[in-house]
Amino acid sequence: MLSLDKVFHAQTVLKSIIRETNVVRAYGIAPDCELYLKPENLQITGSFKVRGSAYKMALLSDEEKANGVIACSAGNHAQGVALAATKNQIQSLICLPDTAPISKVEATKGFGANVCLVEGCYDDAYQKALKLKEEKGYTFIHPFDDENVIAGQGTIALEIINELDDIDAIVVPVGGGGLISGIAYTVKQIRPSVKVYGVQVTGAPSMYNSVRTNQIECLSSVSTIADGIAVKQPGENTFALVKNYVDEIALVSDDEVASAILALIEKQKMIAEGAGAAAVAAVMFHKFNLEGKRVVAVVSGGNIDVTSLSRVIDRGLRNSGRSTSLLIELMDKPGQLKEISRIIADCGGNVTGVHYEKGNTKSVNGCFLRIEMETRDYAHVQLITESLRSEGFRIVWFEKESLI
């Protein structure tokens, strides 16, 4: 059974494998509270997952180690299992969904594991791993629904409590529930007054739904940029622990996650994947009552490939009004673009793209001009649009309308 002694034992066992990631004071992200970040994205494998998998593997018998281990993962657990197995000279096979980012697949191989790609999502990879376990006699290392894995994740709470006094709340991303189960159980044994809040994304609310209906629910599908927490169904152990020890769970959208990733890059010079930024998104967008509180947000991972990061940054810029576009209908005559550019420049905007097209206008001599701009925020966009309209230009569309 899970116990506080087991979490302390895990802390001792993991000293030679993990980094004790020091909390970082965050400025400019959530001015209403005193926010700290627990940067598990700085672990050797890029996420917290190495804690639970390494502790689980340390407790295997010699026979189990000789037979090898198998796991399934969207990526981060895979790397944790691969590293821990290699350090213990254990053969490892990892089943990953074929939608996993290439960077995570290659990193898993780089830590010494064999990889089996499975068509579908995490849950499909999970079924494949269970089948191979029975066929080959491997020991299955569950990514979240295992008391030893949960105990390993609970060491994060010990480090937070040891480093910070008088914290009011810890905000944790939730997929299958192993991370928040370990943290919530540990915190409530030592400092029961500390609130533990969970965060899921609207495209994968399995634990959120299960807690609300008081029974484990399985989603028919998941869709989110936070692939690390895109889990269809929580575990039995984690569901019970979350019900008993977690104070509240809230949902964030993909757009809010994208904004949090951008904020972490700009304000903290810190790279987080979608799942890793979910807790920060919840604080930024006021999903819990944290005003005036001392809060720790767990940045659970940073394994995001460059291509995805570029798309997320662009989305974050557009959601915050930092990058936008206007569609202007005007008469096709010389000097129009020059005048529009002057107005935008006078307002402090920067034109980054121009696209001209004819057709479908009210006038035979009409045309459309699409302007891409760099702006400060939506108030700045509003200033530019109002200035253009006051000069007689007809704006038929601007980007904020598509995001509302």
Tell me what you see in this structure.
This protein is an alpha/beta fold and 404 residues long. It has 16 helices and 14 strands. The strands form three sheets. The chain has a six-stranded mixed sheet with strand order 1-2-10-7-8-9, with helices on both faces. A four-stranded parallel sheet has the order 5-4-3-6, sandwiched between helices. The chain has a four-stranded antiparallel sheet with strand order 12-13-11-14. α4 links the parallel β3 and β4. α1 packs across α7, α8 runs parallel beside α10 and α11 packs across α12. The protein is elongated and about 80 Å long. The chain starts with a helix and ends with a helix. The mean pLDDT is 92.
Question: In summary, what is this structure?
Answer:
Helix content is 44%, strand content 20%. It has helices at 4-13, 49-58, 62-67, 76-87, 102-110, 122-136, 147-163, 178-190, 206-213, 236-245, 254-268, 274-284, 306-319, 336-346, 378-390, 400-403, and strands spanning 24-25, 34-39, 69-72, 92-97, 114-118, 139-140, 169-173, 195-201, 248-252, 294-299, 323-331, 350-358, 366-374, 394-398.
Q: How many strand units?
A: 14
Order of helices and strands: HEEHHEHEHEHEHEHEHHEHHEHEHEEHEH
**Biggest β-sheet: strands ordered side by side in the sheet:** 1-2-10-7-8-9
DSSP helix fraction: 40-55%
Shape: elongated
Mean pLDDT: 92
**Cα gyration radius (Å):** 24 Å
Summed up, the helix count is 16
Topology overview:
Blueprint: H1 4-13, E1 24-25, E2 34-39, H2 49-58, H3 62-67, E3 69-72, H4 76-87, E4 92-97, H5 102-110, E5 114-118, H6 122-136, E6 139-140, H7 147-163, E7 169-173, H8 178-190, E8 195-201, H9 206-213, H10 236-245, E9 248-252, H11 254-268, H12 274-284, E10 294-299, H13 306-319, E11 323-331, H14 336-346, E12 350-358, E13 366-374, H15 378-390, E14 394-398, H16 400-403
Parallel strand pairs: 2-10, 3-4, 3-6, 4-5, 7-8, 7-10, 8-9
Antiparallel strand pairs: 1-2, 11-13, 11-14, 12-13
Helix pairs in contact: 1-7, 2-4, 2-7, 4-5, 7-8, 8-10, 11-12, 11-13
